[in-house]
Input
Amino acid sequence: MITAPEESQASTHRLWAAVETFDGEVADDTLAALLWERNLSEAIMQVVLPFLAELGDRWEDGRLSVAHEHFVSNLLRRWLWAYTGRPREADAADGPVVLLACPPGERHDLVLLCFSLLLGENGARTRFLGADTPMPAIVAAARAANADAVVLAATRDTALTAEAAAISRLAVEHPVFVAGRGATQGVAEQLRAHHLPHDPVAAVHFLRTVLAS
Ligand code: B12
Output
């Protein structure tokens, strides 16, 4: 008898084979099979993030090209956006408004998108601006949306520290949370921001707890 983990392993194997040959149809079908019976949090934690991490490993050791990386990123992005069309939780109407963006020059926004979806499922009203967003645009959007919190994610700490003055000013008006490889406790303190845990599920609880206090 084939067990669920064995099936999942076989699907993951098939998915990587499809990625290697840019076979979009098989990649889409296999991803659908992997995500089908999982709720959003399971899909992100058990499929999407491990897949991205594996992509990173394969890219770093030269097994995959930039073209493969773009192919995978776009494949995942399509699937993640599909989740945004799902019905919201009943309490979302008065949930906190959370604006999410990557600072200028930062293009790694896929984990931020995952986090945004998880927050949405936990009753927040999310406003996702995505990659490479100019600071004046973030400030103006946070004001216009009357954001209860702003989340900034970056891979390099310099993407955040280069904007220290603007982010610290923003933090006076709206609580700011920083996340990603570029965010440390030290960087957060410099920016008058909160440091989110790396684990997106833990980060959702952290943010909701800070906003509730
Ligand atoms: C996919 C990818 C891209 C895609 C991004 C797609 C997208 N829209 O997100 C594209 C093609 C755009 C890209 C571009 C570049 N990339 Co790139 N990229 C990657 C790759 C392969 C995967 C990133 C990823 O999602 N990882 C998976 C996640 C799960 O892991 P993680 O990033 O460590 O995040 C963890 C936590 O930090 C946390 N987290 C991360 N973000 C957030 C956000 C929130 C809200 C929360 C709560 C948590 C959280 O969650 C994760 C799980 O613990 C990594 C390699 C790798 N090993 O990660 C390189 C990597 C991040 N890229 C790198 C580089 C250098 C670049 C480029 C400069 C390459 C180039 N020469 O053009 C450009 C520049 C981009 C820019 N200006 O920002 C370096 C960064 C090194 C550094 N710190 O300076 C890496 C590490 C590769 C390497 N070893 O060289 N990249």
The longest strand covers residues 125-130. The pocket of cobalamin is lined by residues 49, 52-53, 55-56, 59-60, 69, 73, 105-112, 115, 131, 151, 153, 155-156, 179-181, 196, 198, 200, 203 (CB under 6 Å).
